[in-house]
Amino acid sequence: MNALNLTASEAAETHVAELTALLLQNLQAGLFTSRAFLRPGDLRPEAETQAQAFLAYLRTGDGNAAHRHGAQLCSSGVGDLTLVHVGHILRRFGSLYLAETARPGYLEQVEEYQGHVIQGYIAQRSTNILEEQERIRSALQQNLQRYTLQLETAAELARTTISSLELGALLTTAVDLIGERFGLDYVAIYLVDDANRNAELRAATGNEGRIRLAARHRLRTSGASTVGKCLASKRPLLTAVRTGEAPAPSSSWLQHTQSEMVLPLITHGLVIGVLSAQSSRSDAFSSQDITGFQIMCDQLANAIENARLFADAQQRAGDLAQAYDQLKELETLKDKFMQNVSHELRTPLTMIRGYAEFMLGGQLDVAGADHRDALQVILRNSEALSEMVSDILAMLEISATKTAATVISIAETVEDSLAGFHIVAARQGVALGAALDACSQDCWVMARSDHLRRIVDNLLGNALKFTPAGGQVNVRLWEEDQRVCLEVADTGIGIPPHLQERIFERFYQVDSAQRRGRGGAGLGLALVRELVESYGGSISVFSAGVDQGSTFTVMLPRVVA
């Protein structure tokens, strides 16, 4: 280094404070007029660094150091215009603070220094641009790969949902697929209930998901949870949990969740639920993920709607099939009823007509026993017809009207009915017994007297009809738990176990030769059940099987007279 340089360097170093002040003014002037990103607090240290770098160059003439300083200026955020003005500041400094003897060669050094600095600055700027381009390219590539994965997952989800119309399987497949493809800690689907008050968890991944599903986890649609906010706004929602913040009890978050993306499931303009995706990483989701995930959610919402429509169609088809079966059964019962009624009406009418014609044609001895026998046949068959018509009319009356009931003693009704059936039982050779003492004198029920009498008469008549000579029919009456119980037991032909409930159906008859030989249209027991149930009671039957007898038990609410 020559004497001139030493003189310039020494002179400049004596005025380092003034040089720093000039460089600081330059930095301050360019702070808001260029693309600089220096902070105000960094300006003085940066000015001091620039002053020391220039003084070092005056002492050493090291162009490489000046080049590195220019790169540093670029990295620290000094703007282009500020850098260009540095040369002007250094020249001005020389004219203000250097003596005439120190100035020769100074301007040349300033130009050389400025050139090295600018070259370093430009080289670093080029490097920065290339690095930024690489970062942008890498980010675009990552976003493209993630978006491609989202589209591929959406396509696979579409194929899966098309192949399944069972709602539970569809939802489970969807959350498992999304969770696996994107490495998520938890994926859940909530569906809104019919009242639009709650969003119920319907599918979720992992052990925590199984626990919540078992507990039927639900959130209010109008609540403050992320699920409630998403349902209310119909818009996707990104949420990051603050460090140390615990999930709220009403939240969809898990304990380890750090970020969540909630997206609405919308079909035909209606929000039917949401999909919640959660991760233990705070940066797991960005706004760029929303588009791809919303495509998946839109497909899923349509698939859910299709599954619901399919389930509804299946339910309707099942209901129609059941109704059709019931209609066919009713048609069969109607045909059987018509056959039975036709047969039961034809037999007594034939007997009545035949004997009437005999009497009219003088073929019977009107003064002898023939006359009396004919009248008995006519009377007996007329009574059978009257009973059948009465049962039919009674059933029609029960279905069509509600008649007023009164408080009546069931014990008196049973006694009156027994008095009439003792003669019938004796004629058939059947023992008729009764045990009524267990029912107190105030054993009252609420019913119409004619209805209660029909209940007792039909049960007794049915028992005697199907009990052969030498058999026994027993009637028992007692009180139990504020109820009055009437039991009619016989030792007759019995009922097969699988048919014991059906004998109370209208027009139904057990298909057996023993029963067909005893007549009837299958209305008596059906009438008894409808009468009993109309007064809040119940009737049941027990039979050990064919030829094992039957026991009918009626229970009616007991009232205080």
Topology diagram in text:
Elements: H1 3-13, H2 16-29, H3 43-60, H4 63-76, H5 80-97, H6 106-163, H7 167-181, E1 186-192, E2 198-204, H8 206-214, E3 218-220, H9 226-233, E4 237-240, E5 259-267, E6 270-279, H10 289-360, H11 369-400, E7 406-409, H12 410-428, E8 431-435, E9 444-447, H13 449-465, E10 472-480, E11 483-490, H14 513-516, H15 524-534, E12 538-542, E13 550-559
Parallel strand pairs: 8-10
Antiparallel strand pairs: 1-2, 1-6, 2-3, 4-5, 5-6, 7-9, 9-13, 10-11, 11-13, 12-13
Helix pairs in contact: 1-3, 2-3, 2-5, 3-4, 4-6, 5-6, 6-7, 6-10, 7-10, 10-11, 11-15, 12-13, 13-15
Give keywords.
single chain; 561 residues; alpha+beta; Beta-Lactamase; Heat Shock Protein 90; 3 domains; seven-stranded mixed sheet; six-stranded antiparallel sheet; 15 helices; 13 strands; 15% strand; disordered N terminus
Question: Would you give an account of this structure?
Answer:
The protein is α+β, with helices and mostly antiparallel strands. The protein folds into three domains: 3-134; 167-303, GAF domain (Beta-Lactamase, 2-Layer Sandwich), CATH 3.30.450; 402-559, Heat Shock Protein 90, CATH 3.30.565.10. Helices cover 57% and strands 15% of the residues. It contains 15 helices and 13 strands. Strand 1 (186-192) and strand 2 (198-204) form a beta hairpin. It is rod-shaped.
Q: What fraction strand?
A: 15-25%
CATH topology of the largest domain: Heat Shock Protein 90
Q: What is the CATH top level name of the largest domain? A: Alpha Beta
CATH superfamily of the largest domain: Histidine kinase-like ATPase, C-terminal domain
Q: Give the biggest sheet.
A: 7 strands, mixed
CATH architecture of the largest domain: 2-Layer Sandwich
Give the helix proportion (percent range): 55-70%
Q: Give the terminus-to-terminus CA distance.
A: 135 Å
Task: Give the overall pLDDT as a whole number.
Answer: 80
Instruction: Please give the domain count.
Output: 3
Find the structural class using helix and strand composition. alpha+beta
Order of helices and strands: HHHHHHHEEHEHEEEHHEHEEHEEHHEE
Query: Which regions contain 5 or more consecutive residues with pLDDT less than 50?
Result: 1-6, 512-517
Provide the gyration radius in Å. 52 Å
**Shape verdict:** rod-shaped
Specify the number of helices. 15
